[in-house]
Amino acid sequence: MAMKKTLINRDKGRDLLTYAVVIAAFIVMQTLSTQGRLSSAVKGYLVPVCCYIVLAVSLNLLVGVCGELSLGHAGFMGIGAFSGVVLATLLKDTVDNVTLRLILAMVFGGTLAGLIGLLIGIPVLRLRGDYLAIVTLAFGEIMKNIIGNMYVGTDETGFRFAIATAKPKLVGKGKWILSGAMGVTGIKKLSTFAVGFGLILFTLFVVLNLINSKEGRAIKAVRDNRIAAESVGINVTTFRMKAFVVSAFLAGMAGALYGLNYSSLDSAKFNFNTSINILVFVVLGGMGNILGSVISATVLYILPEAMRGLADYRMIIYAVVLILVMLFTWSPKVKEYTSVAADKVKRIFRKEKEAAK
Amino acid sequence: MSNLYPKNTVQVPTFNTFRESDAGKPLVLDVRNLGIDFGGLTAVDSFSVSLGPTEICGLIGPNGAGKTTIFNLLTGVYQPTRGSVLINGIDTKGMSTHKVTKLGIARTFQNIRLFTDMSVLDNVKVGMHNQIKCSFVSSLFHLPGYFAAEKRANARAMELLDFMGLAELADQKAGSLPYGVQRRLEIVRALATNPSIILLDEPAAGMNPSETTELMHQIRRIRDTFNIAIFLIEHDMNLVMNVCETIAVLNYGRLIAKGTPEEIRQNPTVIEAYLGKEDAE
């Protein structure tokens, strides 16, 4: 029974550490920000970093925990971003509270992304491995192009929605909120660092809870051995679907937060590159390692932004950093070294404990 | 081979020897005329067997006779081309594996299939999947129902691990365990699904003689404790002859003999299948 306790405590300890790191980082950044010690450039990073952390954690649920390679995460982000922005614009006069309007937009964006995830999941989740990767890649591109030809607006006849190659005419007075390839312009910026932090906490809460529950065990079992999972009565499709929809929902929320952080937004942003970037965060942070995703999303988002001064060289440096991190985290020698170091640290703590006794 | 179509209940006397305590009780597994073709190849044909609620039955046969194929047919991994499988009286036709499992059949695998990256305890808890009553929403937000369900699951999983002498290892990663222990863990995971029949695919493979002897005791103990039927494939004749009450012999996908260990030992067809035909002198 003692064994069981340590196991559960170790899991809990890791989760608590994840929460602690995120909360500590928030407090530090918020304090610095209120004291006016942050440059406007750094302040500008805060909300996108929150978005990318949520995207990385939600994709990690799919890629790391569920073991399904998805290359269309930017598609869900885009759905969330545009639906969130459109809703926020429509609610401009009815909901006065800015934070409430932002949260409503995020919930709407997440729900729509989750619903589309469910619809896409029905045919797509019949596929496995490489095939799933290819289909999700196509999904991301399709979403980008649909949004790029989508017109949403209001006029005297009420709400207007169209998918067309040329801009349709409005009746009387009115305007397009989303106008095709032009995207949305003149967005009122609603996103704040505090709400972004709240979204990260919500994401961590949902994802970590899911991993430590019956559903999470089933999802991991499907990843480790599908045939054995079926043999103990797990409906494989259902659990892949649950992971897919939760992941899409969270990506949609992050997308809405992202969209409402800029004054203009177009669909080209949510392309294959963005999907791959999020995947890079997940892979470098470690498959299934939630805290790893949080840290790598932060570092890898800020790194190229901070190197803007280096102009064309920054992507070269970024690539070199990626390769080095890969080499270091995967090299057996480095692994050995870190495990020895971890043992030493543990021994020191144990000695202290014994001394205290 | 007059008894290819057994009735739905255990009948005494039959040419199979059933346990007296099973007499008149419904069959837990009733296989009728089962057959499967892979393209032009008939892997299994006209296979019939029936197990009483607490029977230990062995399935033996030379390599490639179709033993594992039969297990795959029974658990819904393959859909039979002909014939039917009834588990606790319910026809499994067209059911997928997870649905068949819910009818009360559990299995282990010839090449061990544990969830290697998960802890021993979690492996068992995955086995208890359908026993844990906890909604998706309360899992997501860890509502009070979640904690109650997890507590019950942990207690039950530890009980099962303790039963097979694995409680001390609950903390370990399943993939890091020695081979023999992994086999035992697979049995615990199968037991965790609360089955009425358990299929063991070569449980003694890779075990040393002392481990095999222990396994024999454990198989009997499983039957006596959980009151379930056991259907096992095994090449270790010592184990089969000692543990099984009935034995079915398969060759080229067909049942060539069925009976008590004593009958099987003396059956000329079985001897021929295993050792080849004696040359006419």
CATH architecture grouping of the largest domain in chain B? 3-Layer(aba) Sandwich
Q: Termini of chain B, distance in Å?
A: 30 Å
Major protein interface: A-B, 31 and 46 residues
How many domains of chain A? The number is 2
Derived structural class of chain A = mainly alpha
Strand segment count of chain A: 3
Largest sheet data of chain A: 3 strands, antiparallel
Average pLDDT score of chain A: 87
* Tally of discrete structural domains of chain B: 2
**β-strand number of chain B:** 10
Cα radius of gyration of chain A in angstroms: 22 Å
Portion of residues in beta strands of chain B equals 15-25%
- Write down the overall geometry of chain B: globular
- CATH level 3 topology of the largest domain in chain A: ABC transporter involved in vitamin B12 uptake, BtuC
Give me the strand/helix succession of chain A. HHHHHEEEHHHHHHHH
Shape of chain A: globular
Question: pLDDT average of chain B, as an integer?
Answer: 87
Tell me the CATH superfamily of the largest domain in chain B: P-loop containing nucleotide triphosphate hydrolases
Number of helices of chain B: 10
Q: For the terminal residues of chain A, how far apart are their CA atoms?
A: 23 Å
Helix content class of chain B: 25-40%
What features would you describe in this structure?
The complex is a heterodimer of chains A (357) and B (281). Chain A contains 13 helices and three strands. In chain A, a hairpin with a 2-residue loop joins β1 and β2. Chain B has 281 residues and is an alpha/beta fold. In chain B, the strands form two sheets. In chain B, strands 6-7-8-3-9-10 form a six-stranded mixed sheet, sandwiched between helices. In chain B, strands 2-1-4-5 form a four-stranded antiparallel sheet, covered by helices on one side. In chain B, α3 packs parallel to α6 and α5 packs across α6. The longest helix of chain B is centred in the middle third of the chain and has 20 residues. The two termini of chain B are 30 Å apart.
